[in-house]
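Recall the central idea of this unit: under ordinary conditions, the amino acid sequence of a chain determines the structure it adopts. In this exercise we apply that idea directly, starting from the sequence alone.
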Amino acid sequence: MVEVQTIEASELERLVAVHDAVRPDDPTSPEELLDWRRQAEETLWLVAVESGEDVGAGIGVLGWHAPRDTALVDLWTLPAARGRGVGSSLWQALVRWAAREGCCAVEAKVGEDDPASLAWAERRGLREVGRSSELVLELDAVEAPVVAPPPGIEVVTWAERPGIERGLYAVYVEAEPDIPGEEAAEPPSFEEWLRADMQGIADRREAVFVALAGDEVVGYAKLALPPGSRERAFHDLTGVRRTWRGRGIAGALKRAQIAWAKEQGYRRLVTDNEQRNEPIRRLNERHGYRVEPGRIRLRAELAAEA
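Accordingly, the structure predicted from this sequence is:
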């Protein structure tokens, strides 16, 4: 019989062990999960136990890069335990929690190259609402590019220009809703954005590259740096103010990121691109990023699920 347990921070190693066994390509840590909880409004951590052994795990998150009425959920079942109701038990617990929190929908992600999990999700009422590819740049295989910003633009780091936070936020407010699938997202307040998007354990001011026209912030590109490893760095938002687009600013910011990551000894850069976001996909491919299987974003309305 499967028992789903809610766990606390002191037990996060249990969840991490299951997650990393299922997703060795994308390991996590208790520190990262605690940072997620700091950034979100509410977080739920679950472990599924069968015959005294942890065989599955799940996470629910509210108020983190999604409307407050939508819960983000994820769950994992050890390969040897599949087909015995572990995933279903976790799913039911996550849906009940989301409903108690007043949500009207849940969203989850499944790998493009995982048809079995996609079919499992579709049987539970989840339907595709977006799709992202993963793009990877092997830094050992490329030379450090020359940044070469367009005339009148200077590229610096946030660390070099403290006090420009309001300008960075102005870029975010314009750029985030222009990402396909994010059109209806309500922008957070400046304080919420600064806390949740710019001050996590993977965020460093020297890894936020800023395009300046004089003293005006016209764009920025941010890297997320998992602590304790230089295996991978992740691209976060790359954004340019609408009136400044089409001048090569995003390309200069991208080249600054590549050059910095090589200098710092990172082995690869990784990013997710929504497949409808053609400008950023073309930009990454021009700089040598290869496309790999990404993630499908799925949504289920809770009324329909019930």
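The mean pLDDT is 93.
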